[in-house]
Structures
1.
Amino acid sequence: MAVGIHSAADARRLARRRLPWMVFDYIDGSAGQETGAARNRAALDDLELTPRILRDVSDRTLAVPLFGQTAKVPFGISPMGMCNLSAPGADLMLARLAARENVPLGVSTVASTAMEPLIETAQGNAWFQLYFSGDGVGTFKLVERAKAAGYETIVLTVDVPEVGRRPRELRHGFTMPFRIGPSQFIDFALHPRWSLEALFKGKPTMANFDMPGYDFDRTESRAKADWETLARLREMWPGKLVVKGVLDVDDAVALRAAGVDAIQVSSHGSRQLDSAPPPISALAQIRAALGEDYPLFYDTGLRSGEDVVKAFNQGANFTFFGRILQFAIAAGGEEGLSELWNVLKTETSITLAQIGQTSITTAERN
């Protein structure tokens, strides 16, 4: 039975109706007054795509090269913490999607399913996202564990020296590990469908921290990470190293010089610094500084296939969707996720046809 998702906005609307307020605002919320999210959305909306006519665009492809392989579509799945809050088993739904589409599943440090079953379910199409925290001892234990599990790509997130203040999340008393107090109990009682499913499956936990001597604290400072931390990670990690959360041109140039394999332009879904510049605007500047050949990825604020094409026009080699995928799962489980994914593919393909292109890799840089 169809869920009725015809756009990312549909998925969000349905998710808002079905999720407890605390969970919805955790997924949907941004930093501060959320003006950063609005500015990035406005910057995306201001970008134009020019229709071109009388070009044979009957044979189109969405496939793109990615680290020596071929992804079926030009977008993957951003690392997102505690996805199983959107619905029990959400992490595994995303992993199965990654396997089918041969795209990377970002496995968050704070995922609600352990890294080992996720890379297995994704049939190897998984990248482990790493947070540095505290003195780094536990962080580098996770690196070794990811290596043992078969991960070939690490994504170091660098834009969270301290967890950004997200007022919507704070008003509900949201914490990780997940705790239920009186206000949360009332919230859940008013959303019985979600609550009964969560009760039956058990409350989500941060599954990657079932390790001796490592008790993860989401609020623990990550401020000690520096360029020496990066150098140590580069030395110990034999696979691809992506650095995520870059908005400054000088930082991007320095990362390339430090041996990073790719940079992901991102403002953490606008969840960190409300005053950050629109990432979509920074993308073109960083591409100009790094040249055409350096791998450059993008996330933050993408809501449609047209957005994906715009990101490629600004210099991206690959893009990632985040919270809208959780909304689709909340709206209709695995079927809802498949519906939205197919919408995104269709939107991207139709956009290419409208602008006279048969492949997104031939997108004209602006």
2.
Amino acid sequence: MTNYFPIHINIEYKTVVIVGGGHVASQKVASLLPTKANIVIVSPTLHETLQPLVESGQITWREKVFEPRDLDDASLIIAATNNTTVNEAVQESAQHWQLLNRTDAQGESDFITPATVRRGSLVLTVSTSGASPALARKIKEDLAEQFDAVYEDYVCFLQQARLMVAAKFEKGDKRRAALQALLEPSLLEWTRSGEIDRREAFLQHLLTGES
């Protein structure tokens, strides 16, 4: 079994070409949309869930059969058709500097996409390296329940608070202690209960030492 190296890659404004316009392609698009990549679909047909995204300009659809030149500007390539011959043609056309995922042949892929839970800046990924996609989905569901929607606001607060702490304290023990204090469980509970004033008061006290 392949030992994958886990990495989060920045593909903002880079081109991702997905060859195939069916259900699998729609799943890949859903996971790619938050990255702000330039998503291009190459397929004679398009899944109904993707049509609104084309109409709104969020993705580009080339209504055609695959040709090697369709990959010219791609940083990432996903071969997602139900036709092995087409997927093989995509693989053969990819350049050595382009990363390829074949949804029908994991062993032929440069990368795989893990099960993902997104809460704003918080990104949780799960992979069994293909051993059990069902287990990966189960763990994803467990994580989605544990790290619910409130974490988006909570992590946003932590990001802003971290910048304020860094501006207030020089590197050293005081900064480390303040950053550690931001993990006080009450901050998450106040976020969950909507007690934002208490959360902000805690932060101000941390920065100034005043109540």
